[in-house]
Amino acid sequence: MFHTQLRKQSFRFSNIAQNYINGVWKTSNGGIALERRSPLTDEVVGITKQTTQAEFNEAVDAAKTAFKTWSQVPLPTRQRYMFEYQARIRSKVDDIANIIVEEHGKTLADAKGDVIRGLEVVEAACGITHVMQGETVENLAKGVDTYSYRVPLGVCAGVCPFNFPAMIPLWMFPIAIVTGNTYVLKPSERVPGAVTYLTKLLEESGVPKGVVNIVQGGFETTKHICEHPDIKAVSFVGGNKAGDYIYENASKTFKRCQINMGAKNHGVIMPDADKEDCLNALASAAFGSTGQRCMALSVAIFVGKSREWIPDLIAKAKSFKVGPGHENIDIAPVSYKELYERIHYLVGTAEKEGGKLILDGRSFKHPKYPKGYFVGPTVIDNMNTNMTSYKEEIFGPVLNILYADTLDQAIEIINNNPWGNGTAIFTQNGSIARKFQNEVSAGQIGINLPIPVPLPMFSFTGNKRSFNGDANFYGKAGIRFFTQMKTITSRWKEPSDSYTLSTAMPTMK
User: Fold this and answer.
1) Which NCBIfam families does the entry link to (predicted)?
2) What angle do CA 221, 226, 227 make, to 5 degrees?
């Protein structure tokens, strides 16, 4: 089998996901949190154990101890660690991508994109000296100066999703540690291999023991993160149920939170759009990554005569090749069985509620992998916003089709949706595009671009029910999240100056 051969030939990791605490790899003494199954064969290929409370406390203690020295490491030195780390990741993109293909099931091209988009955040961390600068104003009063600077928070923690095994962890700990914090990271229990490899590369980069610690497990580990009093900030990417739990419970212990959650992203197709370019973008964004991304364009709103293009969209969807990620294909299997079953259920509800399946990929079976979690491109017409499959995040290669007579109607549909991760419009009219970007309620807007995920000099700015917390991921917002301001007002008096005895509020003169 492919996954067995790959494991033997390329990688030397245990089938049991290990913790990494104070620079030592350890197998947990806890029970089994999850049996990891191949998305191609449904066979058990590894287990993730549940980190115990004592092991978790050990990881936090290691991070807390390391913070005392790491926070005092000069900023340019921490920057140089990031230069070394990004070079090591770049040299191993193929190895990390192959781990992701094996565990997650992604196509190899998509897995490489996963790694590279995370690497871009590490590269941005290499410029930390330019964004950590404070502010100074001199001579606010006679002999009085005020200056401020950024300082780290302490021990921070992250909870990662399954869908981007490399990119999302790299959104978290590199920015945290380059700003002087230490970190406790929980990978997804479904795909721990990429984080294991990334941590080994970090270790090879010379980052001291205890600065980054890895704890495996499921809900119990997340619960420990929320409750531990020495953790100062929590990052999370995933579904709304888990995100709401983390936000509510971590906030109770006065932690900062950045919580990226679910989405239902709409693409608006105007009749004046470049037809071929638009349909290529729409099909790629709807079915790419097998729909397993929070920025998937899962709803198409055809405005006016653009609805006449739907047969051409179906033809493009049918042209995609479905198969195992290690082969030259377009659509890989869904990552795990429960999600596969949920996709089938939600598509079924659309049929029962009046939707019309004009392309149904649920029956696809691969001849070599008959037990694989394959779902081909699926398109549901005759949808409305009250249907279950519109109201729920499907997280599969499924496109819902809605119609609008005008741009205003399309904007109203989007603004009435509770999620606000992203949206896109396809048009050749600048005034239409400008109206859309000004009036639509979503955090990330694409104009003739289907998945507008910002590069890391900006921030990932989903809003509404797609985000809870204090500041967004990476970019300047990420720096603000992982640091706090310290402001000093100093007075150096001349020999003739002195305070006058007074109980009044001091003012600057």
Assistant:
1) MMSDH
2) 95
